[in-house]
Sequence to fold (325 residues):
Amino acid sequence: MREIVVFSGSGHRPFAQAVCDSLGVELSSVELTRFSNDCLQAQLQANCRQRDVYVVAPLAPPTQEHLMELLLMLDAARGASAAQLTAVIPYFAYARSDKKDASRLSIGARLVADMLVTAGAQRVLTMELHAPQVHGFFSVPVDHLTALGVLSDHFLGQDLSDAVVVSPDFGNAKTATQFSRLLGVPVAAGSKKRLADDRVVIDAIVGDVEGRRAIILDDEIATGGSIVELLDRLSEQGCTSAAVACTHGLFVGKAVERLRDHPMISEVVTTDTVPPPAGWPELEVRSVAGLFGAAIERIHAGESISSLFDGVDPALGPPQPRLFD
Fold:
C-alpha cells in the first residue's frame, strides 16, 4: 500500500488516523497556516507525484473552515502531480441543500460539488448523503457508503421481539425499511413538517408502535428537535421506550441535553463520521473507519465498492442479473 498517500484537515484527525491504521499506511502531515488577513494556506508534507492521494475531511462545524481546508489540500495535491486524487468526505454537510423549494434560493450541494471538482477532486468517497440525488451534482465518480450494516450489528445482539424501526419522516422511510429488514422487525414513520431549521411538527405516526420499543433511525441529528418531537408522538401512541440511531451525530445546540436526559431514550448510537460531542460518555459511537479503509483499498486496486454492501442495502449493492424470455 506504499503508493497510497492520505492527508487530513483539522476537522477529524482521529478518524483519518483510524482509516490509515486499517490500511496499514501512515497519515501524512499537512501544514495549515492562517495569515494575518485570516486567509488559509495548505502545504502537503509528503510526496504526491504519481501517487494515489486521499484527502480526508468531514464537513463538520465549523463547516466553511473545513471546506476551505479541503479545497486547498486538493489544489495542493493536484499541483504536486498526484496520479489519482480522491476527496474522502465522511459527512457531506451541504447535501441538505439539494433543491430550490423557494424563490431565489441557492443550491449549495451543487455549488460545493463544482468547487471540489474545480479544486482537483477526480473522485468522491462519502457516506449517507442526506439526499441521494446529490450524486448527480458531481461530474466525477461518487462512491456512496452506508452505515446500515454497522448500526444493525449493534442491535442484532439485543432482544428485538418487541422492537419497531421508526423513521422521523417519509423521506427517510426507504432507508428505515431496509434497516428493519436487516433487524427482522416492523417499520413505522412520522409525518413531519419542517417550520424552521430547528423547529418541526410531527402530526401523525404511520404504523403500529403501541406497546413496542422504538429504534429511531435518522441519517443526521443536529439539534435533536425532530427526535424530541417524534418521541412525544410515540409516547402518545403507547410506545414504551426508544433507542436512537444515526450515521452523522452532530449534536449541536441543545441536542446533548435534549437527548441525554430524555426519559424515553434508552441509548443513542452514532458513528464516527464527525467528532463526538464532549460531556456525553454514555453515547455509543460505532466506527466506520474500517469501512472507509476497505473502500479506499478497493478503489486503489480497481475492485468493486458495491460488493461491500451485498446483502446490506440493495440500492448500494451490485446489480442483480435479470432473466429475459
